[in-house]
Amino acid sequence: QVHQRLMTDSPASLLWAAPFFFLLLSVAFGPLLVPRVWHRHFGKVSLGFALAFLGPWAWVQGLEAAGHAFFHTLLLDYIPFLVLISALFTITGGIYIKNQWLGTPLGNTAILATGGLLASVMGTTGAAMLLVRPLIRANSWRQHNVHTKVFFIFVVANVGGALTPLGDPPLFMGYLNGVAFTWTLQFLWQPTLVLAGTLLAMYAVMDFYYHRQEAGQAPSVAKRFGHMQISGRVNILLLVGVLTTVVLSGSKQMLPAVLDQNLQLGGVEVPMVNALREGTLLMLTLLSWFSTSKKTYAANGFSWGPL
Fold first, then answer.
1. Of 210, 93, 98, nearest in space to 151 by CA
2. Hey, which of 29, 79, 94, 149 would disulfide with 235, CB 3.0 to 4.6 Å?
3. Is 277:246 a contact under the CB 8 Å cutoff?
């Protein structure tokens, strides 16, 4: 019956999305329900769900079609996505902000707003990595600080990346498939402003309430908001390089005509400009890794685990 259902359904049937749906459920609940098993075997679980799709697809569509779909997704979607995320993750991980300011409602709200803006330039993961530790240090003296971390996730790690393809993976996937780089900024800036503004206003009121209850406990050694030291500044230039590379890769009219050709890899036509983009991003990633002090990465608690 399952075979008949697969044979009669179109490739767009929701039945084909079932492995992905259960993969998302495992990502959401695995670390909560079976943390030890999940952290030791999440790679196997992910591979299992991938094969749960690819196997039936090969059964229905044939090995050749399944192989073509696999390499097409690998070369045109997955590798470009992973290369971009790796570049943003590595480069932002090499920027360390040392701060000695107090966690006040005004300062905290400013950090959240700044992170929301930066998320569209360096990705939600990059902006979160850059600012979460300074925010935690600034509020370590406060008894009530959990709400700050929650709203940081809302504003910086979710809403903030909506304005460019660099911000969130789904937007970058759209960019890879022909959506204009400025489309998100043109059509999403108003809902993003409303949502981010509402969240920041809610947070400011809540943080002001809690701050009034514990303002007398503030340490006297802290300095004014804005006093900070930045290590790994070369990575700021490398971030500009990432942004420039991605924008130019989607502007064929600004590139030499020789790049308007395709490479044949595994039966898949890969635009030469894509290969150049991925190569440039990898080069910027390596430049960041080898030019940044490992002490800076250590201070940021950098690890390859998230990737």
1. 210
2. 94
3. yes
